Amino acid sequence: MAHSYTPGLKVTEKAILKKERRLPLKGEVLVKMGDFVKADDIVARTLLPGDVERLNLAGKLGVPPKEALSFLKVSIGDPIKKDQIIAESKGFFGLFKTTVISPIDGTVENYSDITGMLTLRKPPKKVEIDAYVNGKVVEVIANEGIVVQTPATFIQGIFGIGGEAKGELKLVAKSPDYVLTKEDITDDLKGKIVIGGSLITSEILEECVKKQVIGIVVGGIDDKDLKDFLGEEIGVAITGHEEKGITLIITEGFGKMTMAKKTFEILSKNDGKRASINGATQIRAGVMRPEVIVTYDDLNIKFEEAKHDQLGMDINSLVRIIRQPYFGSIGRVVGLPSQLQKIETEAHVRVLEFEFEDGKKIILPRANVELIEE
């Protein structure tokens, strides 16, 4: 019988995870090999160059570019303060002087006697990265970061928005198919990560932001509600940089999707425990999944290391579509033709026959689905 192989989502209570924590550019690593770190510990830091501000110095002084430099009251490389006079014309008989003040705190970087533009740079920005999870440092990446290893409960979602967050898990849904209501979002959920059921609406998301909920893990969301909440369409290529005050993790797909029983049970067991979550999602290349991680108090527990193994798929396998236009739809494999077939892009690929819950069937590339563990 024909088979296909496709990556599936990881949902496991006991795994050994490794998380790389890397600075955006070289800096200082603050921990060493073998150290035990907490999720909030700062493990590396660096300075990002400040933004550039350009002034038309010659234009402001009303002189040719080659002459403007002589009116500077500061030198290239000097620190400056906002509203400090940095250039001044001589005027006529000491009168009608033109002064140029600095719009920023920063430094004088350079001047072009061709364009007459003076370049100022704002102070550097401090960037720090934390450990994200409790664990042991098992690798130090010189001047860049570390790798943390930890035994943990690990749940991947199919789609998410918002970046990293850490907080206490709070079970709010009464069952995997429960739909959250406005009354469920109470004041005591401030700073918590809500465990929902089958659906989250834009109204409930807004209420969560209002009540300062930092994260939600739920089965599904409608396209329209997601667009209404974000204020724009969002693609499925890469997310995680949205600044909406909350991290959302969708475990099943788009629409009203009952959370998988195994996922709901594992999350329920961890009610009240501190978790690290990240909504960043990348589907098309270098797959990145939104995640929920709950570490164990005993960091020396021995579990199997989490591997993103390839899983076998067969007739009647439960799968999820991970490409548009049916992104997030769940159904069964009812056919696995052995011959390559031509698709819209003119490529010849292996395909499968997919059956929706309502009985509708379509043909699509096998690479467009992922296996769901039952």
Please outline what is shown here.
This protein has helices spanning 57-61, 65-68, 202-210, 223-230, 261-269, and strands at 4-7, 11-22, 28-29, 36-37, 42-48, 52-56, 79-80, 85-88, 99-101, 106-111, 117-121, 125-130, 135-141, 145-156, 159-161, 164-171, 192-195, 215-221, 247-254, 274-278, 291-295, 310-313, 318-321, 330-335, 341-342, 348-349, 351-355, 361-365, 369-371. By secondary structure, the protein is mostly beta strands.
CATH topology of the domain at 158-289: Glucose Oxidase, domain 1
- Helicity level, as a percent range? under 10%
Q: Judging by the overall fold, what is the CATH architecture of the domain at 158-289?
A: 3-Layer(bba) Sandwich
What is the distance, rounded to the nearest whole angstrom, between the alpha carbons of the first and last residues?
21 Å
Radius of gyration: 27 Å
**Structural class category:** mainly beta
Top keywords for this entry?
374 residues, Glucose Oxidase, domain 1, SH3 type barrels, OB fold (Dihydrolipoamide Acetyltransferase, E2P), mainly beta
Description:
- The protein has helices at 57-61, 65-68, 202-210, 223-230, 261-269, and strands at residues 4-7, 11-22, 28-29, 36-37, 42-48, 52-56, 79-80, 85-88, 99-101, 106-111, 117-121, 125-130, 135-141, 145-156, 159-161, 164-171, 192-195, 215-221, 247-254, 274-278, 291-295, 310-313, 318-321, 330-335, 341-342, 348-349, 351-355, 361-365, 369-371.
- Strands 2, 4, 13, 14, 15, 16, 17, 18, 19, 20 and 21 form an eleven-stranded mixed sheet that branches.
- Residues 1-6 have low confidence and may be disordered.
- It is 9% helix and 40% strand.
- The protein is built from five helices and 29 strands.
- The two termini are 21 Å apart.
- Among the domains are: 52-121, OB fold (Dihydrolipoamide Acetyltransferase, E2P), CATH 2.40.50; 158-289, Glucose Oxidase, domain 1 (3-Layer(bba) Sandwich); 314-371, SH3 type barrels (Roll), CATH 2.30.30.30.
- The chain is elongated and about 85 Å long.
- It is mostly beta strands.
- Strand 18 (215-221), helix 4 and strand 19 (247-254) form a beta-alpha-beta unit.
